[in-house]
Amino acid sequence: MKTAPALDVDGLLGDPRMRIIVCCGSGGVGKTTTAAALGLRAAELGRNVVVLTVDPARRLAQSMGLSELDNTPRPVVEYDNGGSLHAMMLDMKRTFDEIIEAHADPDRARQILTNPFYQSLSSSFAGTQEYMAMEKLGQLGRSDEWDLIVVDTPPSRSALDFLDAPERLGRFLDGRVLRLLVAPAKAGGRGAFKLLNVGIGMVTNIANKVIGAQVLKDIQTFVSAFDAMFGGFRERAEQTYKLLQAPGTAFLVVAAPEKDALREASYFVERLAEERMPLAGLVVNRVHRSPAADLSGARSTAAAEDLDRRGGHEVAAAVLRLHADRMRVATRERREQESFMSAHPTVPVAEVPAMPGDVHDLDGLREIGERLAS
Q1: Residue 187: which CATH number?
Q2: DSSP label at residue 146
Q3: What range does the domain containing 166 cover?
Q4: H or E stretch including 110?
Q5: Domain co-membership, 113 together with 183
Q6: Backbone dihedral angles phi then psi of residue 307, each to the nearest 5 degrees
Q7: Structural domains in the chain (count)
Q8: How far apart are CA 55 and CA 53, in angstroms?
Q9: Is 202 a residue whose pLDDT tops 60?
Q10: 3-state secondary structure of 246
Q11: What positions belong to coiled-coil segments (predicted)?
């Protein structure tokens, strides 16, 4: 089997210059568990760590023995060496509300927070979650409270959408159509229609018919109130984007040793390269190996058949067949990993052997961390 460079997990976690680790990968590959295990391992090494999950599933809270997570870091464990672990889950609406409250005067903040269009935008508009992840990461990064921030991204290709979030939200809020819709309100209300050209009037009339006069009024009111804040949103997001590209940040791609998961891992590796984001390596979870690897699956099956012919060796034959099945799985996994490594020969890799059961507590996370480091 082709060998990849080894990923030095403890070297990465223990480096005091390392401030942000972003875990990304497709769904069902153990990404949330990996992020939590990395955070716990770093805390054991003496670092003050916060794990931020953007995945709304409850797996992170459950694995850390917490009933729930919210938008505020919650303490998980502290160590005598000064290390500590906190965890939180992104609440995109609460994060948006906090930004409005922090960067607008009370009257303007009230106008925005009570606006129906804002309430829809802040809770369900496509891209808002990723943008708020950028904002929350920026807040944590600007704080001196944490030595290390570990980010657990959503379980899909949208895990990297937050890289595009500032530009996409900016295009929406600064878009030509939206500005045309807002133009009457900015020009002074009903009397201002006399000052507008026929084209703008037609757009507004069409919008009234399609989305309704009240919705249009809500959009106009929101953008007028929000307009003065928009530059700050874009500036902070751009600062966070640069922070992700800077020394002190590392991306870890998490995958399972399966064709689809490793194909997604290739996508992440290539996308990160395009964005000039620092890739630390690949974590392959749930890898199947055997302590009796010298005994091939074919020989094991042949031996089981020989025992069947002799009779009286049912248990031994069953064990040999289990070993043969495991070796077939291991061979398939090696083949898939070799395909990935052929395409990305310089990417460091850490393998985590398959666990006998699900990880649901700190002891399980600690074992995952040990396996990552070894």
Answers
A1: 3.40.50.300
A2: -
A3: 9-292+330-373
A4: helix 106-113
A5: yes
A6: -65, -35
A7: 2
A8: 5
A9: no
A10: coil
A11: none
